[in-house]
Design a protein that fits this description.
385 residues, mainly alpha, Citrate Synthase, domain 1, Cytochrome p450-Terp, domain 2, three-stranded antiparallel β-sheet, globular, binds s-citryldethia Coenzyme A
């Protein structure tokens, strides 16, 4: 390898293509998003998490028989090993929800006889188990943090309905269920985002899929990525009254603070998912609490100001995380579960990318331009200053 004197460094790998993929198209200039060629708007309107999972993993919409089959596979896998329930219980009073999710998901590998089997068939079966159980783990985290105990899953329910049962101990109302079904579809996939890339880097060493998904969870936690939904709602709580919005934003921007839920490495237009969530939120107003209506008023004023100040000039638009918080609140979801739910949904996209990348695997090993010294003389400690 020649020692390149002036390498082209792309910080954060901005603009670098790492692979070819048939899973997801993000059109950042026009604000368009497609899972396996289907517009996100059509999938949110018509699909389910089970069907979207099949689509992402298999590259096509399922037949009725195929949908019934994956629905059964996900349902059969949703019960958690008691050892994992104990980990969640032990950590609940001590750790953040994403840390519990990361640890509990990693522990699943101890209860899977196929963990070390890297055959495509075994990796597919493990993917189903991970996608199913991460939702059960997130529901159990929420349940235990609220002082409850593990709720046995109900195999007769759909994926999201069972999630809500395991979280709340009772069947969800229709509005909450409709909201959460859409949230699980909308967060399922987004091409080579940081957490998907982290998953792929781990898997590219031929480490197992539990390790790869654990890496994805670790990456998603950050407020620059999946953690922005929680951070954006916390900002709305801090703003308190809608009349404080403009002064809060003004002061934050003056202090070079980032307004969570805005901006994106790829979207330089309105994130289509944010559009869907905004419309959804507006449609919920008359059936929502004063709290949701207050957050909505704040969000709309912040959106208006940020678009006026930063969209045209800096390409900074609302992203998926901005309106997500008020929508989750409308579904009765506690703020500490926003990012874990994002992770439970995105496990479908992480697994899809891992299975696809392993078909033509190549170790990720980028370079860095060394700017330090070389050939220094070693000085014994007694002679050092
Ligand atoms: C997700 O990649 C994906 O697909 C991710 C995701 C997915 O589905 O997987 O879409 C989910 O992670 C959405 C993004 C959630 N994160 C946030 O909302 C956090 C706030 N946003 C930013 O931190 C930022 O916009 C990023 C991190 C999302 C993208 O940043 P980039 O591309 O690295 O751009 P940058 O940080 O270099 O910012 C460029 C300029 C900077 O100003 P200068 O230093 O050049 O003067 O824009 C400014 C930034 O300060 N800027 C913001 C801003 N975002 C960027 N200023 C105020 N508020 C913001 N939100």
């Amino acid at each position: 390898m020649s020692d390149i004197e002036t390498p082209q460094i792309s910080r954060g790998l901005e603009g670098i293509y790492i692979a070819e993929s048939r899973i997801c198209k993000v059109n950042g200039a026009e604000g368009r998003l497609y899972y396996r060629g289907y517009p996100i708007e059509a999938l949110v309107k018509n699909s389910s998490f089970e069907e979207t999972t099949f689509l992402l993993l298999n590259g096509k919409l399922p037949t009725r028989a195929e949908l019934d089959d994956i629905t059964r596979q996900l349902a059969d896998a949703r019960d958690l090993p008691q050892g994992v329930v104990r980990i969640i219980s032990e950590m609940s009073g001590k750790a953040e929800s994403m840390d519990i999710l990361r640890t509990a998901t990693s522990a699943l590998s101890a209860y899977d006889a196929e963990t070390a089997d890297m055959s495509p068939a075994a990796n597919f079966r493990k993917s189903i188990r991970i996608i199913s159980r991460m939702s059960s783990i997130v529901a159990t985290i929420g349940r235990m943090r609220a002082g409850g105990s593990y709720i046995n899953p109900d195999k007769a329910l759909g994926h999201v309905e069972n999630f809500m049962l395991m979280l709340n101990g009772k069947a969800p109302d229709k509005q909450a269920l409709d909201i959460m079904k859409d949230m699980f579809v909308i967060h399922a996939e987004h091409s080579s985002n940081a957490s998907t890339f982290g998953t792929m880097v781990a898997g590219s060493t031929l480490s197992d899929i539990y390790s790869a998904i654990t890496a994805g969870i670790s990456v998603l936690k950050g407020p620059l990525h999946g953690g922005a939904d929680e951070a954006a709602l916390k900002m709305m709580k801090q703003i308190g009254d809608p009349s404080n919005t403009e002064s809060y934003i003004e002061s934050a921007l003056a202090g070079k603070q980032r307004i969570m839920g805005f901006g994106h490495r790829v979207y330089k237009a309105y994130d289509p998912r944010a559009k869907v969530l905004k419309e959804y939120l507006l449609s919920l107003q008359e059936h929502s609490s004063e709290e949701v209506r207050r957050y909505t008023a704040i969000a709309l004023r912040a959106e208006k100001m940020m678009i006026e100040k930063l969209s045209a000039s800096h390409g900074i638009w609302p992203n998926v995380d901005f309106f997500a918080g008020p929508v989750y609140v409308a579904a009765g979801i506690p703020v500490n579960l926003f990012t874990p739910i994002f992770a439970a949904s995105r496990s479908a996209g992480w697994c899809a990318h891992m299975l696809e990348y392993w078909k033509d695997n190549r170790l990720f090993r980028p370079l860095e331009k060394y700017t330090g010294q070389i050939d220094l003389e070693y000085v014994p400690i007694e002679k050092r200053q």
